[in-house]
Design goal:
The chain is an alpha+beta fold and 488 residues long. The protein contains nine helices and 29 strands. This is F-box domain protein.
Length: 488
């Protein structure tokens, strides 16, 4: 017995002193070849007891764990917190909590655990289309007579025109209403609403604004009644105009209630979207760029133009000096290597808030007949981080025309889809593994058509919303779904 123990120690010592991988491999291979069947079973049992997994997340420094967590969505973080006590403590730490919250909301990185939990639950409800409840007995003073183009929603308030001369702003949280009109009872034709202000365009070519808190009124003259963009954020207004007599001559009228001064900003042609920041004098524009290229060889389809999108940012200082930043190209969310033909859909989007832009995208014509239908591209601007997000609606997503779309949260879009002839609310979330999913708990309660190709009521309903409420307005009803965790 003593001799066996001595021999075992000698073998182990000799194996330990082998310095190369090839020598060690040859040694244990030759030992394995000497094993008997019952000894093989013992080796296999011993191997099954050994774990070859490594807890990369648990052993990573907090700074590395933060980088990993930013590539996970909230649902994945919630699931991973249940793996082990160590993972739960790590993924619930203040450092990771703040980084994830800032990534999704754009707010500061300092957030309490209660705030983070509340936001996470609300965001997951939005991603899955699961509202807390559907509001009933709203007791609205009848917005149905108002044109859908003359209604808007922002931060829990719904605004519409009454009799073309009065503006009604209804607070869904407080169940209160405000009424606004000019001294001369001017008629209005367009309406916008922000978290701080309601704005209307009169038929006489004036832009009238009211502060929702103080009800202070101000107005300024606009150069024309036909505009490509009309956006309100905070106490600031931006309207985009194109000169019909000069192609490419486009400008933005920028006005703030604090200064009361309207400034004209010359911008790039083919303006598609204007984004405003609520607290700083800055704006972001999205443009369609066309670059012509020459026919190559005998290919009749190689001549034409390459279409792309670019983002340009502007700042306005206290003295009115305007600074233009260099333009930044925006990558289309479609296959590369194809010269997509892109057109701005100016007239078919019924997004009265002007907070998004829609494009029609088609592959170039080819000598071989193609059956590829067009794609719909939707761009949204996030004012918290001043970034433009892109959503691609594939042909199989079949959105209605005119488009019925609203951006409810960062990189999260709700749209009405033609679901075999019946309107259904769907969700676009490009960051998700399932970028398009139905909001099954949100039934628009609109009738089904006999055909899935055309819906005769498509221009008679509109969708509005944000993180707290999503609203659908049609000719006879207002449906409101609540997502925010608040008390009424």
């Amino acid at each position: 017995m003593g001799n066996d123990s001595s021999a075992t120690q000698q073998i182990i010592a000799l194996f330990t002193h082998l310095n190369t991988n090839s020598a060690r491999q040859e040694a244990y291979h030759r030992i394995l070849d000497q094993l008997k069947p019952h000894e093989w079973r013992d080796v296999r049992s011993r191997i099954n007891q050994r774990s070859f997994q490594n807890d990369i997340l648990g052993q990573s420094p907090p700074e590395v764990a933060v980088q990993i967590a930013q590539y996970l969505d909230l649902a994945e973080i919630h699931v991973l917190q249940r793996v082990s006590r160590k993972w739960h403590l790590l993924l619930s730490s203040e450092l990771i909590r703040g980084a994830v919250y800032q990534h999704y909301s754009g707010c500061g990185a300092h957030v309490t655990e209660t705030q983070f939990t509340r936001y996470t639950k609300q965001r997951l409800r939005l991603e899955r289309g699961l509202p807390i409840c559907k509001l009933r007995d709203l007791n609205l003073s009848s917005p149905y007579g108002s044109s859908l183009d003359c209604q808007d929603y922002s931060n829990g308030r719904h605004a519409w025109l009454e009799g073309n001369t009065h503006i009604i702003v209804h607070d869904l949280c407080k169940h209160t209403a405000q009424r606004f009109c000019t001294e001369n009872r001017d008629s209005f034709r367009d309406l916008r609403l922000s978290e701080s202000m309601v704005v209307a365009i009169s038929v006489r070519g004036y832009c009238h604004t009211w502060n929702l808190e103080t009800e202070e009124h101000a107005s300024f003259r606009i150069p024309a009644l036909h505009f490509r963009a009309f956006v309100v954020r905070g106490l600031r207004v931006a309207l985009g105009f194109a000169n019909p007599l000069a192609i490419g001559d486009e400008s933005i009228i920028y006005w703030g209630m604090g200064s009361g001064v309207a400034r004209s900003i010359q911008v790039e042609p083919n303006l598609a979207l204007v984004g405003l920041h609520s607290t700083t004098n800055s704006l972001t524009t999205l443009h369609l760029q066309r670059e012509n290229h020459i026919k190559c060889g005998r290919d009749p389809t190689s001549a034409g133009h390459r279409d792309s999108l670019c983002v340009v940012k502007y700042t306005v200082d206290d003295r009115g000096h305007i600074t233009r930043m260099p333009s930044e190209p925006l990558q289309l969310p479609f296959p590369l290597g194809i010269d997509w033909s892109v057109e701005i859909l100016h007239d078919i989007s019924n997004d009265a808030g002007g907070r998004l832009a829609a494009f029609s995208c088609q592959p170039p014509p080819s000598a071989v007949p193609s059956t590829s239908p067009r794609y719909i591209l939707v761009a949204t601007h996030d004012p918290q981080i001043d970034k433009v997000y892109m959503h691609g609606l594939r042909p199989e997503d079949t959105p209605y025309l005119p488009l019925c779309i609203t951006a409810v949260d960062r990189n999260l879009l709700y749209y009405v889809k033609n679901d075999r002839g019946k309107p259904a609310i769907w969700i676009s979330n490009p960051a998700s593994r399932n970028p398009h999913r139905p909001a099954k708990a949100m039934d628009p309660e609109l009738p089904r058509e006999a055909t899935s190709r055309v819906y005769s009521y498509a221009s008679r309903f509109t969708l509005r919303g944000d993180r707290d409420f999503v609203m659908m307005v049609d000719e006879t009803d207002v449906k409101v779904w609540r997502f925010g965790d608040m008390q009424f």
